[in-house]
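Students often ask why we bother encoding 3D structure as a string. The short answer is that it lets us treat folding as translation between two languages. Here is a chain of 65 residues written in the first language.
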Amino acid sequence: MTAEQLITFIIKLYTYYLEELNSQPKNDFIHGEMTAYVETLEIIQACNKDLAKELNYVIEEKYKI
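And here it is in the second language, the structure alphabet:
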């Protein structure tokens, strides 16, 4: 797996996790989990816009944490 494939996989996986968690009743554990995923996606987005083409939105606005 190349670095580009790995980043794409992480983006898709974390986006899937966030969609699932967004539909759950919120508690401290879910909030912490969502925060970790959002922060990781924001780091990917900030580091390499070309690899993060799918993250062409404000992540924290989409997934309220």
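Translate back mentally: The two ends are 31 Å apart (CA to CA). Keep this in mind for the problem set.
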